[in-house]
Amino acid sequence: MTSATILVADDDAAIRTVLNQALTRAGYEVRITSNAATLWRWVSAGEGDLVITDVVMPDENAFDMLPRIRRARPELPVLVMSAQNTFMTAIRASEGGAYDYLPKPFDLTEMLNIIRRALSEPRKVPQSAADETSEGMPLVGRSAAMQEIYRVLARLMQTDLTLMITGESGTGKELVARALHDYGKRRNGPFVAINMAAIPRDLIESELFGHEKGSFTGAQSRSTGRFEQAEGGTLFLDEIGDMPMDAQTRLLRVLQQGEYTTVGGRTPIKSDVRIVAASNKDLKVLINQGLFREDLYYRLNVVPLRLPPLRDRAEDVPDLVRHFVRQAVREGLDAKRFDTEALDLLKAYPWPGNVRELENVVRRVMALYPQDEIASDIIDNELRIESPEPSSRSGTSGSPTSISQAVEENMRRYFSGFGEDLPPPGLYQRVLEEVEHPLILAALTATRGNQIKAADLLGLNRNTLRKKIRELGVTVYRSPRPV
User: Fold this and answer.
1) Which CATH architecture has domain 310-387?
2) 337 DSSP 8-state letter
3) Which fold has domain 159-306?
4) What is the mean predicted confidence (pLDDT) over 246-270?
5) CATH class as words, domain 5-145
6) Tens digit of pLDDT for each residue in 334-359?
């Protein structure tokens, strides 16, 4: 079998040397150039079995050349490299018809694996190029962790695969879902988001699937659900771990059969919706506790994507700060510049509230301080407010945090996550339910599932405890007695 010929275009002499040596050792014939004009001459003449090109060339941007390559050689795999390393770079490479995208610096082993895969796969003629993307940057960051996310999203853009996004609160799960929709094949359809934790449990099915007039008390007219509203587009199910079991069963049926019925309705309705789910909880733990259906988990977890906490990609903090400053300026705040020492302090902070917390700090600083340049003393003061010393939070130094203190800290972070807005109504009942569930579960675990002892331990009537177990969906553990 004749060895494949790889065409390489990069104006960096060191990279050309490394690629020439690595590809030659792997048994490929290599032709290398430092400009786009020569690469295009080779491609248009029908030479080469695969192209590796940098985005920025001295005479032409590779993204401008990709459409011509697609028209002339639609079956030719093109691997794009770039040191720009932004979300839009990955998306433009995908939309331009590139086989894959690699950020610089790249891993040679990974590149060789991609080349082997590209040359062994039967090539499909790509669809026509998508519309030019806007210059807006939906996702920000150049860290290695974000590069992997960009690559996954770029590969998913032209598919309808279900995506499960996990990560701590404030990492940008809805932002990722919106980016997938806005730059994907369903961009002309609606994007509908629903937060399971913000809706009363007995109304979730009606919110999702709609209801018929008279189907329950208060149903004065027919109401459309989020599935119907998202028809032809994307439905984002945030905090999926808070979905009640009955609603989980109905959602599973939709995913399996592609149709649903409204609450009180009998006629099945076909569903054409892409599902993106998200959770800041470990769903496998919820499965073990009997709070989440395992079969639904595997239906949703077709493509898993975990978003890193901001502390694990601290090198992205300066880019994020500049992004939030530009946003605030467009909204009417005066422009500010953060000096190097201030940025270093922001990079060193652990950010328990992640990107959302950083955004709140940047906006607060821009609004409260008249200085054009934000220095380190300002940031140091704001971060002390953001995260008080342990002694100010927990009384005696070294003493464990009380339940009251833990709830207070949790509520502070929860409210800060909404910025200047307020959380959805019904917060009191939601907080009580969140506290009740682990409390009753702990009592049942401590009493090995003995409900009489658990009721006595909690100071509840036995029938009241049974009612709470049913309402909250608490799994009753009955472990054997120790011998």
Assistant:
1) Orthogonal Bundle (1.10)
2) E
3) Rossmann fold (3.40.50)
4) 87
5) alpha beta
6) 888 999 999 999 999 999 999 999 99
